[in-house]
Amino acid sequence: LEKMTDLVAVWEVALSDGVHKIEFEHGTTSGKRVVYVDGKEEIRKEWMFKLVGKETFIVGAAKTRATINIDAVGGFAYEYTLEINGKSLKKYMENRLKTTNTWILSLGGTDYRVVLEKDTMDVWCNGEKMETAGEFVEDGTETHFTVGDHSCYIKAVSSGKRKEGIIHTLIVDDREIPEAVE
């Protein structure tokens, strides 16, 4: 593996299937552009006469669209911005906080990252979409799934307040897991 001498930007992007590392090399003399996702080369362009522009590629199991924008900011200085699904990384992550819940837990010495996509009620665990079974209960709903030999469910209960909406709680082996902040 050659040394990344032209590495100009590194981003960490939390998606439902995990946290992905995006690295970008930009040779400002050769115009070379290389994009790595989780250490794997996705795009390589050796000679580019145009030093500005964009590179679009796919990230993660859900095939999320990502774009790196390369803009000149005077002289030989460049600015690199990452967009996820057409939104700036900051906007995308702010929106994700509203549309997902994430829990980090350790079971039997193994770490798990559980993500609920509130709009679809899809549950992801360590990069895999889980088989789930939903059921209505007296005060809301429960979405059941298993992690290893542990029974889990996400309980959805109305907060009673319009601004707060629905409160989602992860229960593993009858104990509540606190939500993680990524």
TrEMBL record:
<dbReference type="GO" id="GO:0005737">
    <property type="term" value="C:cytoplasm"/>
</dbReference>
<dbReference type="GO" id="GO:1902042">
    <property type="term" value="P:negative regulation of extrinsic apoptotic signaling pathway via death domain receptors"/>
</dbReference>
<comment type="function">
    <text>Plays a role as an inducible effector molecule that mediates Fas resistance produced by surface Ig engagement in B cells.</text>
</comment>
<keyword id="KW-0053">Apoptosis</keyword>
<keyword id="KW-0963">Cytoplasm</keyword>
<protein>
    <recommendedName>
        <fullName>Fas apoptotic inhibitory molecule 1</fullName>
    </recommendedName>
</protein>
<dbReference type="Pfam" id="PF06905">
    <property type="entry name" value="FAIM1"/>
</dbReference>
<comment type="similarity">
    <text>Belongs to the FAIM1 family.</text>
</comment>
<dbReference type="GO" id="GO:0006915">
    <property type="term" value="P:apoptotic process"/>
</dbReference>
<dbReference type="InterPro" id="IPR010695">
    <property type="entry name" value="FAIM1"/>
</dbReference>
<dbReference type="InterPro" id="IPR038513">
    <property type="entry name" value="FAIM1_dom_sf"/>
</dbReference>
